[in-house]
Amino acid sequence: MTVDRRILQRFDQTPDADRYVASVAGHLLTVTVPRASHDQPTLAVDGRVVLGSETTLTPPEAGATAATPTTLTGEDLARYQLLQRRNAGGTWFYWIGGASILNSLLYAAGSQWGLVVGLGFTYLIDGFATDLSGTVRTPIYAFVIDIVLAGSVLLIGRAARRGKLAWYAAGMAFYLLDGLLFIVVQDFLGIAVHGFALYRLWGGWRAGRALRRIENVALVAAT
Fold first, then answer.
1. N or C: which end of the chain has fewer CB atoms below 10 A?
2. pTM of the model
């Protein structure tokens, strides 16, 4: 969802609509998009519907906190913050998968340069396949395996950002196992980067788990 070139993250979903929330110049912007195609979306600023009317936003006073709309409770804001943290952590899978593909291309081109956030398994596969084939270039089957591994990490990132915590945990376990390769070869920069990435992934997973608990409590209360 994009409003005035600003990307809004989806906040929650109901059977009737999707809701997107963002903070703009000290004000809370809420866009509700009905699932029915013939219905129009609604835009609210600080809880006041403004779509279809001319509205002037007054700047917030110095030192004042952002206004909280009546349509969002404290629990809603907590869920929004947890959602942001979960998605930020899951984005690291995109960095890992993308860096792994780039590293495979660079290795195939004969470059010794690469991004340490990428998978060490791709280097292991490429090196083993090159030695086995006795050629200078990376065999095509090794590159295909690299793409499959990196693509799997990208798919795990997509699942993680959608709240699939089991896939999130599986991705962290795989990346932890990958980090052991850097320990074996004593690549201290790779160890440090893998450790930092795992720290961010762990923070995102914990936020996702906390968000799941809040949603489960709300679901039980609604029944």
1. C
2. 0.69
